[in-house]
Amino acid sequence: MRTMRIPAKITLWVAWLVMSVFFVVPKSGHAAFNPNFIISDRDFTNVYGLVGNSIQRFLEDQSGILDTLTVQDLDGQVKTAADIISRVANQFLINPQALLVMLQKEQSLVTDPNPSENQLDWATGYGVCDGCSTSDAAVSRFRGFAKQIDSMAQQFRLGYLADLEKLGRTQTGVGPGKTVSIDGVPVTPENNATSALYTYTPHLEGNQNFWKIWNAWFTQDPLPSGTIVRDASDGTLWLIQRGKRRLIPSDAVLTSYFPSASVIKAESSAIWSYEEGVPLQFPNYALVRVENGDVFLIVDQEIRRFQSLDDLPRFGYAPDEIIEGSATALQGYTLGKMITYQTAYPQGFVGQDSATGQTYYIDNSARHIVLSDALLKSRFSGWRVRSLSTDELASLVEGDPMRFQDGTLVKLPGLPTVYMISDGKRRPIIDERTFLSLGFAWNAIIETTPESIEIHQPGDLITY
């Protein structure tokens, strides 16, 4: 295939020179500690922070006593530490990640392989006030690993958070927008979670430790928009798109939209931390009928309504190809132009100039140049290419050049910088560690031409 040569802009070459080695830009750390905001309300109460076996796997990774600990729960049954943490998290709707941070902050139990009996008995420090004796009958009733976690979570959910919802403050007067003195420093909590943490631990150092542990264990840059993720626990597929997770019901649906996307594996907790969006329920190029009888054609996450169902045979569609759906199921798609009798090629096809060999995607009476063989293979693998005369192509309106789909990894031959296409932009991946941490595979990278990369607007560095 011959391609039209478009000179690459100087800015892209500068970017390649600056990124000419995979390790040039240091990743910045998390922001400095803000005593007014320790953790978001959503993170603190996200009961899906760790699901399934994720708690046990996390404990095993930390190599502390809790990965093998079994104790009696409040119901008299002997359970693993992970099972007790999961039970408490679900009962009181507290993020199990937050419970783990509290266990580490109070007694270092997550990482300590040989804790004392006292550390286990007072795992979360519940009931042990400054100056209190653990032998006091009023305090000793809270002794025990399971009792400690249960009592702490109950205090947060039924005590602090309930008071904050009802009164705007806890019983000690701590609440969002209310300035209090913590170790002589004025603190004005910005949310309920921060207010609750200061009520439980009225000290700066303890809450800064919570913040440090939380950030070290559970805070990371979000996955780039366009990332395709497979849940490591149950194999479900998700599209991370503009801060939401969209279910992809099958590999067939995935391939119909993203034939070249690199699929990474992630823990359920990382996936479920995103707000759930509308599923990509139907495959690309499907015909979907909604409740009022309207039929839509799906093309690359865009839906186009047929003005008249009588036109379906004209475009080569049979009635038995229509899938029954709903307007709700199509809410996650962008509404495109209506398909009328005059519409040409609503699904599109690939055409090649019989004289020059240049290929185009033809759609709605417009021609869209395909700037490289790699781009052609990535977007239209398996498509039949029609031969068109130069005059036929000239009769079509010139549209925007074709781009790689979101989630595609691209680079130039001989240069190390790898870009991920995200929301239509080219985003350089900062270093090899980030590439591997995201779960990408080297063999998923597509080598292509400067023109087919340059056509994407530059985006932010991807750090992770």
Written overview of the protein:
With 464 residues, the chain is an alpha/beta fold. The chain folds into four domains: 1-28 and 347-464, 2-Layer Sandwich (TTHA1013/TTHA0281-like); 41-218; 227-276, no CATH class; 287-335, no CATH class. Helix content is 30%, strand content 18%. The protein contains 16 helices and 24 strands. It has helices at 10-18, 41-45, 54-62, 81-92, 96-107, 117-121, 137-140, 145-167, 192-200, 204-218, 251-257, 268-272, 373-380, 390-394, 432-437, 450-454; strands at residues 70-72, 78-80, 180-182, 185-187, 227-231, 237-241, 244-248, 263-266, 275-276, 287-289, 295-299, 302-305, 322-324, 334-335, 349-353, 359-363, 366-369, 385-388, 397-398, 409-411, 419-422, 425-428, 446-447, 457-458. The strands form six sheets. It has a five-stranded mixed beta sheet. α5 (96-107) crosses α10 (204-218) and α8 (145-167) packs across α9. It is elongated and about 95 Å long. Residues 1-30 have low confidence and may be disordered.
SSE order and pairing:
Elements: H1 10-18, H2 41-45, H3 54-62, E1 70-72, E2 78-80, H4 81-92, H5 96-107, H6 117-121, H7 137-140, H8 145-167, E3 180-182, E4 185-187, H9 192-200, H10 204-218, E5 227-231, E6 237-241, E7 244-248, H11 251-257, E8 263-266, H12 268-272, E9 275-276, E10 287-289, E11 295-299, E12 302-305, E13 322-324, E14 334-335, E15 349-353, E16 359-363, E17 366-369, H13 373-380, E18 385-388, H14 390-394, E19 397-398, E20 409-411, E21 419-422, E22 425-428, H15 432-437, E23 446-447, H16 450-454, E24 457-458
Parallel strand pairs: 5-8, 7-9, 10-13, 12-14, 15-18, 17-19, 20-23, 22-24
Antiparallel strand pairs: 1-2, 3-4, 5-6, 6-7, 10-11, 11-12, 15-16, 16-17, 20-21, 21-22
